[in-house]
Amino acid sequence: MEKEIIINNQPDEITRIAQFIDELGMSLQLPPSITMSVNLAIEEAISNIIHHGYPTNKEGEITLLTSVAPGILTARIIDNGISFDPTERNTDADNIISLDQQLTQGLGLFLIRRTMDKVEYHSTESQNELTLIKKIDMDFKPEASLKTNICKIEEVTILTIEGRLDTANSNDFNVVISPLLSMPTPNIIINVEGLLYISSSGLRSLITLQKCVRQHQGVLVIEAMRPEILKIFDMTGCSSLFTIR
């Protein structure tokens, strides 16, 4: 089975990619953890192409081709922007740079390498092709869009996050949490029991909130995190930045 989608190099087009992967997962009956890994890697790859592969205001197209063989899902991402090989890595730099540096110098690429089973890159004078390979199982349950709620009980602010916290809605999420960034001595609990997916954009938003809370001598606790979300926090080192219970 093969499927294809072509998008413009605009951030809001990533929503179409997420829907495309969800529909693919549904057709294959993939488990949520596999669908999330595939979606995360593809989103990060395409987001990098959109933000760094083209000069400002230059229009371009990005093609996503997916194919399925027994036990393997292959995604090929083709663009004609600036060539960049995400398979190249500096081992020493990975061990030395701080988490803050990783967030601005390749957290997305790190997530791609950690969530996919194989990553290959080829480039010609006219186009770039990134191939992502994931071993797959069966049994899919659809995921929800982002829902948030903020309430205050006595001196505790409770932020509830449900659904997807990804590139497409991270700006909306930043608007939601903006009042929390300047609270004096904040005491915040984030309930993520219903959080089904988080990308590097979502991680950055939470880290920004955590930094502001610390600057104002407050406390932030994340509660009821699903194992698949905790895995993302662990693999990026973000677990050490938060109190998770």
UniProtKB/TrEMBL annotation:
Coiled coil: none annotated. CDD domains: HATPase_RsbW-like (cd16936), STAS_anti-anti-sigma_factors (cd07043). InterPro entries: Anti-sigma_ant, HATPase_C_sf, HATPase_dom, STAS_dom, STAS_dom_sf. Residues 146-245 form the STAS domain. It comes from the Bacteria. GO terms for molecular function: anti-sigma factor antagonist activity. Gene3D superfamilies: Histidine kinase-like ATPase, C-terminal domain (3.30.565.10), STAS domain (3.30.750.24). Pfam families: HATPase_c_2, STAS. Belongs to the anti-sigma-factor antagonist family. This is Anti-sigma factor antagonist.
